[in-house]
Amino acid sequence: FKLVNKQGHLCAIQECYDPDMHGDMSPRTQIVDSLVDFSGSHCFDPEEVIIRSTLPPVPVISASKLERVTDGLRPEELSDVPKKVRRTGTDEVFFFKAGFREHGHLRELEILSKINFSSYSDPSLRTSRLVGLVVWDDDVSCLMGFLLEYVEGETLTLRTRNASAARKMKWMRQVEATVKRLHQLGVVWGDAKPDNVIINAEGDAIVVDFGGGYTPGYIDKELQQTFQGDLIGLNQMAAEIGLRQRFG
């Protein structure tokens, strides 16, 4: 808002949101049925809306219907934004990701939607799945974040410390197969590293985190968000866990 003088009285006039002036007010992404509703708005930013038809048919849940799962952690050990949440009154547990612009939430939603649509006919695609959208209670068209399947397990980094070469090979082959399938879908994993692979209760390797970015030491900066970067990252992962074979 800005204050203006109208005949001796101060009046508040709403301004268009400007992140340079007002700071980052994320999350503020809207879920809409059509862009037509915004065609006459001079404040419209097409990068801050999601067309409902591009999303898979997952539940839309108000934030008040979710509660943090603490797993016995002390308050000082909990992050400000909860990660493990439960739907109130149920045993349904999810991984919550907040819709922050700087964390690439729109990119991740787009990728997760592609994965969901593909996984209906390809259940062997081993990734975390989008299972819900979280909206604000006072504005159900505004995205707060989204819910992923909660994958119980440990990271590839932890599980390979005492694993046999055969198990390491199995997990890397599973990650390799998933990454190749993602590439066929036109999807770049983006941040290939052992900490972004979870070994689940069945002993399978699940690829997680599609928010973008990269980790120095795995690929060069200029190769981030590229298919080539993913393949280089795979081989860096293999070397880190003690395998000499080439992947990709």
UniProtKB/TrEMBL annotation:
Coiled-coil region list: none
Pfam families assigned: Pkinase (PF00069)
Domain of life of the source: Eukaryota
InterPro entries referenced in this protein's UniProt entry, alphabetically: Kinase-like_dom_sf (IPR011009), Prot_kinase_dom (IPR000719)
Protein kinase domain location: 55-248
Gene Ontology terms, MF aspect: ATP binding; protein kinase activity
Official protein name in the record: Protein kinase domain-containing protein
Species for this entry: Photinus pyralis (Common eastern firefly)
